[in-house]
Amino acid sequence: MSTGPYNYSYIFKYIIIGDMGVGKSCLLHQFTEKKFMADCPHTIGVEFGTRIIEVSGQKIKLQIWDTAGQERFRAVTRSYYRGAAGALMVYDITRRSTYNHLSSWLTDTRNLTNPSTVIFLIGNKCDLEGQRDVTYEEASKFAEENGLLFVEASAKTGDNVEEAFLETAKKIYQSIQDGRLDLNAAESGVQHKPSQPGRNNLSNDQQANKDNCAC
Amino acid sequence: MADVLTETVLPEDLKKFEQIYHGQLYKNDVTPKAQFDYAFCLVRSKYPADIQKGIALLEDLYRTNEEGQRDYLYYLAIGTARLKEYSKALGYVRSFLSIEPGNQQVMSLEQTIKKKMEKEGLMGMAVAGGVLVAVGAIVGVGMAISKSK
Predict the structure, then answer these.
(1) What are phi and psi of B96, to 5 degrees?
(2) Which of A57, A144, B92, B93 has the smallest C-beta neighbourhood within 10 Å, fewest atoms?
(3) Does residue B75 sit at the A interface (CB-CB below 8 Å)?
(4) The complex's ipTM?
(5) What is the CA B17 to chain-centroid distance, rounded?
(6) Where is the region Disordered (chain A) (predicted)?
(7) Which chain B residue lies closest to A84 (C-alpha atoms)?
């Protein structure tokens, strides 16, 4: 089997949500592949991506569920909110309607995740300054009023994409350190892998097998 | 927490969409959406019987509803892969890619399926099986020759 000792000590679950066509999959792709997908078809149901990052010297594996933005998937993709440690809520700065729908996305997120879930608001497509339809100040105020982290980013140029994913992880890690996030709670969206490389290989394998059987 | 082939539906979700579907079925007026939502949950169940049922519902949608073909193909691939019917699953992936070449989501599913096959040693077994047949054939021929002498 290819499962040796884990090379990360935590798994964080993220979801990416927001209206159709705001660039959720492109943000994910930019983050995991460092490439821009120019021609991005509509996501079917949910897409999945991972990347290992480092926060305060700890390796963390991000498991990212990128949900379809099309309305017809909204009912079924809600189940992915459960147990998310981080939620990236995306709108398109060139399309006001995608911004206006944020309160509905936020309501869903608050209802379906837990109080410790970190919500990060991303105004995507900030490379298209000429077509801007939502000002930075307005969105920033919305974020502040609702206790969200906020950044304008561009999946095309890569501006602030890395930052959004990493800042979310830092905030989650901080919650763990402060004891605000209970690692033992099933819905925390965080798994701890207390393994030291070269030791506890047996328990690692057992853990890995457990993961495989989808329980 | 896993990937698209191992994550499972929440029992309450399955129940919720089952009720909607059955409610419509009772009135003999099932919408493609209710059927898809229910199938979407079924193919992500941990019970093979549920997955089978989900596949049947998706096959029916694929035949009767032109609109959501790409959704149905994608989840048919997921359902069959979860039942370890990998060649079928890869067949759906290929059909999808012939309509929409270069779709990143589907290409990534293809990779996940192939990785899973590798992990389960199916690639290896196929090769080993081939070798066994070949050895058997050689032994058989050898025996036939020695007998004929």
Answers:
(1) -60, -50
(2) A57
(3) yes
(4) 0.82
(5) 21
(6) 187-215
(7) B1
Measured at the alpha carbon of residue A97, what is the angle toward residues A92 and A100, in degrees to the nearest 5? 95
- Are the Cβ atoms of A1 and B119 closer than 8 angstroms? yes
Task: Give the residue, A139 or A1, on which the prediction is more confident.
Answer: A139
Q: Which residue bears the tokens 């105020």?
A: A141
pTM of structure: 0.85
Pair of tokens at residue B30: 């099932």
The pLDDT, as a whole number, for residue A186 is: 72
Q: For residues B105 and B31, give the distance between their C-alpha atoms in angstroms, rounded to a whole number.
A: 26
**C-beta separation of A126 from A158 below 8 A:** no
Contact between residue A53 and residue A166 where contact means Cβ atoms under 8 Å apart: yes
B52-100: per-residue pLDDT in tens? 999 999 999 999 999 999 999 999 999 999 999 999 999 999 999 999 9
Q: Is 90 exceeded by the pLDDT of residue B41? A: yes
Q: Which contiguous run of DSSP H or E holds residue B41?
A: helix B32-42
DSSP per residue, A36-59:
--SS-PPPPSEEEEEEEEEETTEE
Question: Does A199 score more than 70 pLDDT?
Answer: no
A160 Cβ neighbours under 8 A, 6+ residues apart: A122, A126, A151, A152, A153, A154
Average pLDDT of chain A? 89
Map out the domains of chain B with their CATH numbers.
2-148 (1.25.40.10)
d(CA B41, CA B50): 9
Q: What are the tens digits of pLDDT across the range A140-197?
A: 999 999 999 999 999 999 999 999 999 999 999 999 999 888 887 778 889 888 655 5
Residue in A141, A156, A45, A145 with CA at minimum distance from that of residue A92: A156
Indicate the fold that domain A8-194 takes in CATH: Rossmann fold (3.40.50)
Looking at A55-182, list the stretches that DSSP marks H as alpha helix, in order from N- to C-terminal side: 74-77, 96-100, 102-112, 136-145, 161-178
All residues of chain B having their beta carbon less than 8 Å from the beta carbon of residue A2 are: 119
